Amino acid sequence: MILVTRPSPAGEQLVKQLIALGMDACHTPLISFAKGSELDRLPEFLRQLGNSGLLIAASQHAVDYAQKELEEQNIPWPSGIAYLAIGQKTASALEEASGFSVHSPEGREISEQMLKLPQLQRVAGKDIVILRGNGGRNLLAKTLTERGARVRFCECYQRVPIAYDGDTLCESWQLAQVNTLVVTSGEMLQQIYDLTPGRHRHWLLNLSLLVVSERLAEQAAVLGWSRCRVADNADNGALIRALQSF
Known about the structure:
Keywords: Lyase, Porphyrin biosynthesis. Pathway: Porphyrin-containing compound metabolism; protoporphyrin-IX biosynthesis; coproporphyrinogen-III from 5-aminolevulinate: step 3/4. This protein is of the alpha/beta class and about 250 residues long. About 40% of the residues lie in helices and about 20% in strands. Helix 3 (about 60-70) packs parallel to helix 4 (about 90-100). It is elongated, with a radius of gyration of 19 Å. The model has no long low-confidence stretch (mean pLDDT about 95).
């Protein structure tokens, strides 16, 4: 049984796809989403970009929340700026929302790939707004600041941990004969580790683990997982390909 911890709706979609392929899968989302603390200030941040700034969307959720906020305030996405996104799905969502073309890196959907884009090489003196959720990595902003840009985050949404009784949850997973775990963020990896009571920890760490980056694999090794594989990307298609090769 494959346990998918990815949030809804992507987690539910992945489970349906796996079942359609003949695999046993179940879904226990570890986080939900809520409006971000800075979303109300998005129009202000966009105005500060002027006609030469850059807007970077870190996730599809950030785009969705930003689009809803701008629609409610009857404010269009600005013209004259450059639009960028981490990952093809996020880029497609931003293109559909804004009506403008969006640049995104090829390959893995990570900050390291994003920083290779030509549009982010000469950014000294430019204003950049990054649409994202709460927390997350600061590598992108840190590097762009070092390159001379003025970088501002806009927290469009918050990741909210879902409260569970760890004992009950682990017992239900074991009854379902879960043997493979899919985790798509470091935050959720730590969450499921902390959620698991000590008497179930050995069982958890002996599950086959699928993650979406080498950074997560390193985190998993530190926590004690010995059987961990890395998907070639973070989208559901990449996760399915990896699970089919287990």
